[in-house]
């Protein structure tokens, strides 16, 4: 990857835009190829991949620009080469809804109903014909700061509280499809989630919500709109009746097959945008200058652009942002920190999932930054999932990793077993996760302004992805299908 070349280009881009020049003009003729497509999709994760496939199926020509060397975004599968066993360490679960069944079956990727299969009994060996995520184990809570055991308070009336939470959420059904909010924005949506569950006498549901809402940082203090979009009405519906996952526990297979379908000629991998010229172009097409892995610069000429990457200013360097885009994208004040890994040589009891809790915090939530849990995968000897989180995105990947190692040592000492040097098979940064604006901005119409960006630049600029909806594959595909693609096709 030409990272230094990229840095120089990004620098030139910012310098050029400061002077009112376009980097595209400066580089005129320097590109190795001009690629013309109906739609250029930026980011090949959950939303970008799904959208590209849908657009191809509507006979649109597409190209995806993706920073990584593969599609899939937060989907990550470790493959144990010795046994062929796959282990998902990113996205795991999907809802049993048509958009999911359609997308998987299009690529002949089998799904299973996670509630309908026979897993092992806790304490017994894993069922090797099932995905690793179905390994069933005992749970032991302790405080990972010192290894002391914690007995979490079990709230009474949990079932009733969940019902009340569902009723409260049901007032806002439109949250299942983007951020098309009424004016004025209901106060419920911008109060802290902790206040919301108190208002609706649903605090006893919080431990469940927290457990499912990994990556949401300080969940009691995030705006309710974020909390109830991430763990939403549909989750409440399917949590008991069954989520779905890839039959072997290899969700990456979906993206590998989708890549074949989209075609190498329609994907620019290890590539990123260095400059754009969208406002006043000769043929009315939007021009994007891309730095590619092997072939230097390429110029994309796009009938429409679908942006699916996190729209931070850092990610949008070199873009000729409109005043409307700028006023929206400058408002992200924070994000969460979230890292997941797979670690070997831990030596602890492999029938127990170690869950981080604290004796004196509300709902016994762990004190972050910290591992949420250290859980054996069951299907590989002495291999563990490590999920690490922070309330902000400031830790580096290396800092998060060494923090996690110190906590593993603390657990080993507390369990009277030798402190080992853990061996990381994977350690993935999912940071910055979940971009957020202030409660005030939500109240003052931030999401109305965000939604109003759709169809900007004379019906040529569109947006999808977590920032325009929520971090949830199923819901993002539904949003593409029901909202974004129809808008792009002019059939909304
Ligand atoms: C650990 C973890 C577990 C999860 N588990 C589940 C789950 O079980 N079920 C579920 O439904 N959801 C789950 N999620 C949420 C996940 O589905 C969403 O986060 C989803 O991936 C968001 O899709 P997206 O298209 O917005 O972004 P992404 O999938 O992140 O896609 C964005 C893509 O853009 C690329 N990119 C970023 N910046 C640039 C740039 N400047 N230039 C070019 N490319 C760029 C990225 O590499 C990425 O491929 C999980 C998330 C995490 C982190
Ligand atoms: C796409 O084109 C094919 C072949 O021309 C045609 O059969 C099909 O109906 C078209 N699909 C759509 C959605 O327009
Ligand atoms: C999944 O399995 C559970 C348990 O058998 C069942 O109740 C549920 O209906 C199944 N889901 C679907 C979509 O078939
Ligand atoms: C393991 O899972 C498979 C597939 O669901 C099932 O057929 C089998 O009965 C399970 N084995 C045991 C021992 O429960
Ligand atoms: C609040 O919830 C608790 C526990 O579920 C229940 O016992 C109590 O009656 C509820 N109070 C009101 C006012 O609904
Ligand atoms: C999982 O999918 C990947 C494609 O990403 C493939 O290379 C790998 O062989 C698959 N593994 C198994 C065990 O199915
Ligand atoms: C747009 O292009 C036209 C013709 O090329 C030019 O005259 C005009 O100044 C341009 N407008 C802006 C805002 O750059
Ligand atoms: C592992 O933990 C289980 C559950 O507490 C216990 O029954 C078992 O004896 C433990 N195994 C070892 C080797 O300590
Ligand atoms: C949304 O846009 C309106 C109109 O431009 C503006 O008055 C308002 O301040 C904006 N709100 C936010 C939070 O940006």
TrEMBL record:
Highest taxon listed in the record's lineage: Eukaryota
Q: This chain belongs to which protein, by name?
A: Uncharacterized protein
User: Native species of this protein?
Assistant: Hypoxylon rubiginosum
């Amino acid at each position: 990857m030409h990272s230094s070349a990229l840095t120089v280009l990004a620098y030139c881009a910012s310098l050029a835009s400061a002077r009112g020049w376009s980097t595209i003009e400066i580089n005129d003729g320097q590109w190795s190829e001009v690629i013309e497509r109906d739609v250029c999709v930026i980011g090949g994760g959950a939303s970008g991949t799904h959208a590209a496939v849908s657009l191809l199926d509507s006979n649109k020509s597409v190209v995806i620009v993706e920073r990584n060397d593969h599609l899939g975004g937060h989907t990550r599968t470790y493959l144990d080469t010795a046994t062929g066993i796959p282990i998902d360490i990113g996205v795991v679960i999907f809802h049993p809804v048509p958009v999911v069944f359609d997308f998987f079956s299009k690529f002949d990727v089998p799904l299973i109903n996670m509630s309908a299969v026979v897993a092992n009994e806790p304490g017994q060996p894993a069922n090797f014909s099932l995905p690793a995520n179905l390994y069933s184990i005992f749970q032991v809570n302790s405080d990972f700061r010192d290894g002391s055991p914690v007995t979490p308070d079990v709230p009474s009336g949990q079932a009733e509280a969940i019902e009340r939470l569902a009723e409260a959420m049901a007032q806002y059904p439109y949250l299942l499809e983007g951020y098309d909010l009424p004016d004025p924005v209901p106060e419920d949506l911008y109060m802290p989630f902790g206040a919301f569950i108190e208002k609706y006498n649903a605090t006893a549901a919080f431990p469940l919500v927290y457990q499912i809402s990994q990556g949401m940082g300080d969940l009691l203090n995030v705006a309710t709109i974020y909390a109830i979009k991430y763990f939403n009405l549909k989750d409440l519906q399917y949590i008991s009746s069954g989520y779905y996952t890839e039959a072997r526990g290899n969700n990456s297979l979906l993206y590998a097959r989708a890549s074949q379908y989209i075609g190498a000629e329609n994907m620019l991998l290890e590539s990123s945008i260095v400059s754009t010229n969208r406002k006043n172009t000769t043929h009315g097409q939007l021009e994007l200058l891309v730095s590619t892995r092997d072939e230097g610069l390429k110029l994309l000429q796009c009938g429409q652009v679908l942006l699916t990457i996190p729209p931070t200013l850092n990610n949008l360097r070199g873009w000729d942002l409109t005043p409307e885009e700028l006023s929206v994208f400058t408002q992200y004040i924070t994000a969460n920190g979230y890292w997941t890994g797979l670690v070997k040589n831990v030596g602890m009891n492999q029938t127990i999932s170690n869950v981080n809790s604290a004796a004196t915090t509300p709902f016994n939530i762990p004190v972050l930054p910290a591992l949420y849990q250290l859980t054996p995968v069951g299907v590989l000897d002495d291999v563990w999932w490590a999920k690490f989180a922070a309330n902000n995105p400031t830790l580096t990947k290396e800092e998060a990793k060494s923090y996690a190692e110190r906590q593993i040592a603390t657990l080993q000492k507390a369990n009277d077993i030798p402190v080992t040097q853990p061996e990381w098979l994977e350690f993935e940064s999912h940071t910055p996760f979940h971009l957020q604006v202030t409660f005030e901005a939500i109240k003052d119409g931030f999401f109305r302004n965000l939604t109003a960006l759709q169809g900007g630049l004379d019906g040529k600029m569109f947006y999808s992805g977590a920032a325009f909806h929520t971090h949830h594959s199923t819901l993002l595909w539904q949003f593409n299908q029901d909202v974004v693609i129809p808008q792009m096709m002019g059939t909304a």
